[in-house]
Amino acid sequence: MLDIDRRTFIAGAAASGLLASFPRLARGATDKAVDLSPVYDEIAEQRSQSIERIQRWIQQPSISAQDIGIAECCDLTMDLLRDAGFGTVKKMKTDGHPGIFATLDAGAKQTMGFYFMYDVQPVEEKEWSSPPFAARLVDKADVGKVIVGRGAVNQKGPQGAFLAALHAVRAAGLKLPVNLVVVAEGEEELGSPHFSQVVRNDDVMKALARCQGVMMPAADQSLSGTVNVVLGAKGIVYVELEASGEAWGRGPRDGEIHSSMKVVVDSPAWRLVQALGTLVSADGNEPMIDGLTDAVRPVSSQQKKLLDDLSARWDDADWKKVFGVDRWVNDLDERAMLERYVSRPSVNIDGLYAGYIGEGSKTILPHRAFAKMDIRLVPDMTATDVLAKLRRHLDRRGYKDIAIKNMGSYDPTDTALEAPPIQTQLAVYKAAGLAPVIWPRLAGSWPGYLFTGKPLELPAGHVGLGHGSGAHAKDEYLVVEPAAGKKYLGLDGATRSFVDFLFAL
Amino acid sequence: MLDIDRRTFIAGAAASGLLASFPRLARGATDKAVDLSPVYDEIAEQRSQSIERIQRWIQQPSISAQDIGIAECCDLTMDLLRDAGFGTVKKMKTDGHPGIFATLDAGAKQTMGFYFMYDVQPVEEKEWSSPPFAARLVDKADVGKVIVGRGAVNQKGPQGAFLAALHAVRAAGLKLPVNLVVVAEGEEELGSPHFSQVVRNDDVMKALARCQGVMMPAADQSLSGTVNVVLGAKGIVYVELEASGEAWGRGPRDGEIHSSMKVVVDSPAWRLVQALGTLVSADGNEPMIDGLTDAVRPVSSQQKKLLDDLSARWDDADWKKVFGVDRWVNDLDERAMLERYVSRPSVNIDGLYAGYIGEGSKTILPHRAFAKMDIRLVPDMTATDVLAKLRRHLDRRGYKDIAIKNMGSYDPTDTALEAPPIQTQLAVYKAAGLAPVIWPRLAGSWPGYLFTGKPLELPAGHVGLGHGSGAHAKDEYLVVEPAAGKKYLGLDGATRSFVDFLFAL
């Protein structure tokens, strides 16, 4: 869920060019510099295999919402992990699509965790200029040579670059400086409803407890080349509210009836509308669910400083253009908007339905009405508490009959700027002459809370250079080779960024 | 639009059996009794042709909402009118589907108007037990032999019975005692958006001005045999409200965006929900549109008396069962419910839509949201005034950007109990031993206001016996031959009821 934000919530100053070989940074097991040039050579050498690996992964559809190719893609992902050197690769049953638990024992003192997902969003095939599962190499004007396909950037492409890094290290005859643990799921695009069943497995918990953090491979450069580093993400409560005559005991019980009856028959559609109206302020912008914001942690002075930095590098006009938005809520300026973005919860209507919505008129009194809603959570809110508060809020107002269906909810994640994997990441980028933008938090959501929350309380974040776009949309792509003059990296550079990160840990 | 109500808003006491030949009633041109038995004989004689005529009419689909078969059905309807003796049959162009204006000059002193419609509702073919345009004769358990098809009761069947009456009169060698004027439209199921262009034509207005009223052929008997006589119908304002980022200048302008943006971007979906919430009371039952009920005419003492009568013959449990409703609004008892039903306006949500409403979750902030709504009007409300009040209500609350699309609206109709066509109808039914239930008004709507309103100010209503059901729904039917012991009439009886009415005028 995070990716659209990461992809688009991007603007601002340009950063400098390509990564170069550089000495291993502070927190490794040794102070000796490691010469990574043989690895870089292998990366260039293995380019075509790396591209083919990503293409093969994309060519295996894995649409979790429609259960298309999930079993096959789970097996393929396990094969790809084994090929990359993971000694143990286990399929983890859940009540939904299976997860994966894999370990690579490098005999190192340190261990690092990575989060993978192997599912992708649905496609509207006719909208694509290149078929979504063909994974074609395409020359994209003013961007470069790209792989077009569903999963190209979210997340098969960046994960493929990560695996390419492991292949290159091995081919160069080097030993990985860290052991690796991968936990993967096939339901991220569904809101990770069963991923806790993977993470909470005893063996997995033991392996994760040894990790210094859990990172998600990413392609974190914007079109302008800016590198984004993210310290946290919002949690989410995704629910479907339903008002029905059957549950209410008023209004039509079994089916729609003629609308002329409204004068004497109660309406579940009106009931839903009136109940929804109590959840936000009149302008639709302030959550009004009783007690919802009680647990919101104030913005820290460190975060204020990061927001000042963010704001200073922010191109507000550019960002508004990306979203097709003319003004922010309450006509906030960019600094205030950014603070609100990272620090406040939101209550959104994702979908609304009742009765007849086709062409023309149909005079009916619908017997049911529903709303799909997401509530985004910031620390120290929890999904469990928010669900309870939503229920209580409705109950107090007499809406006990309105059903709340939890469609996949989880807590916010929060990682300290000082956390070793974050500091390592920043050091790697800075050593390469890049000037990352640091986000205290993105408003998107991913199940990182399973790592950052109790009992593991690990740092978690995203790492990786390169550029791609179109997650959840048509013509999703990952850049293999940037057009001339571009400041983001291609596949080789992205692969190098993972090597650099691992050797800097 | 009226028919579902008429079909289903029915219960109560049984009435007596078949019509018999009876003397012409008071208000004719002559006091002499007319022996109608030769006409009745012809009705029986022509039964198969009459059935075939209705079948042919149904077999020509004429779905106005989808523009299916409209042109062909207009021509067919004109042919059927000519065959039945109408000397002048004109197609009347409108900005939508064409209307029809037909006259039959019987050389009589009196003239009677009739309203026809030749369009039908859409079908969900797979739901039908017999194809909707096959017009098959089917033995329906506990009902009798019926014609099943779209339009069977709404309105091709009753109109077919009316035409059969004219054929039988001519075949019996009798002269019609009244001249006839028919005005027809092909957009009743769309809310008659252009029917005024037919009625307001100079020639049509002149012809209608000579009429003593305008009646709609119907099959006004319930399953229990009760005959319903209706003095009026509610008016309707059917609108589509739309909130959009584009019109608002806030929120996403061009398309949906990621829902995590809600925290800083305004939501048209919330805007619509909050605006809708101001239109009714918290329980969804009382219209709160500023000034909406100002023009509501109080219930008269005559109407109170009619409501007492209605209530006395009312089977509340039966009616609740028909609608699948356990209680009326405010837990009203039947007398209070009936008074509310006939005398109060209502504000209904017919449809509600925004964003993603498919399976599972999709995290989006929709750029538009809409509601289909109908407001039912009682005298002396007018559609024009209500539309203006709705606009003003929203404007006053700052919702100027919410678009109101008028999808077809018209005024209520009201005809006095004392009006000659009503009294004739009652006399005919009573002479046949039937005890009609008189409704001061139904909550359904039809464009009768074009006749009852200025400048014509004619009585208007519905006339005709027989039984059918399923208007707007699957397996619509008209009874051709009732099952044993049933108290409603079959096609012959329905046809006789039109003959009786015409000769009693």
From TrEMBL, chains A, B:
<keyword id="KW-0378">Hydrolase</keyword>
<feature type="domain" description="Peptidase M20 dimerisation">
    <location>
        <begin position="257"/>
        <end position="400"/>
    </location>
</feature>
<dbReference type="GO" id="GO:0006508">
    <property type="term" value="P:proteolysis"/>
</dbReference>
<dbReference type="Pfam" id="PF07687">
    <property type="entry name" value="M20_dimer"/>
</dbReference>
<dbReference type="InterPro" id="IPR051458">
    <property type="entry name" value="Cyt/Met_Dipeptidase"/>
</dbReference>
<dbReference type="InterPro" id="IPR006311">
    <property type="entry name" value="TAT_signal"/>
</dbReference>
<dbReference type="InterPro" id="IPR011650">
    <property type="entry name" value="Peptidase_M20_dimer"/>
</dbReference>
<dbReference type="Pfam" id="PF01546">
    <property type="entry name" value="Peptidase_M20"/>
</dbReference>
<dbReference type="InterPro" id="IPR002933">
    <property type="entry name" value="Peptidase_M20"/>
</dbReference>
<dbReference type="GO" id="GO:0046872">
    <property type="term" value="F:metal ion binding"/>
</dbReference>
<keyword id="KW-0645">Protease</keyword>
<keyword id="KW-0479">Metal-binding</keyword>
<protein>
    <submittedName>
        <fullName>Sorangium cellulosum 'So ce 56' complete genome</fullName>
    </submittedName>
</protein>
<dbReference type="GO" id="GO:0008233">
    <property type="term" value="F:peptidase activity"/>
</dbReference>
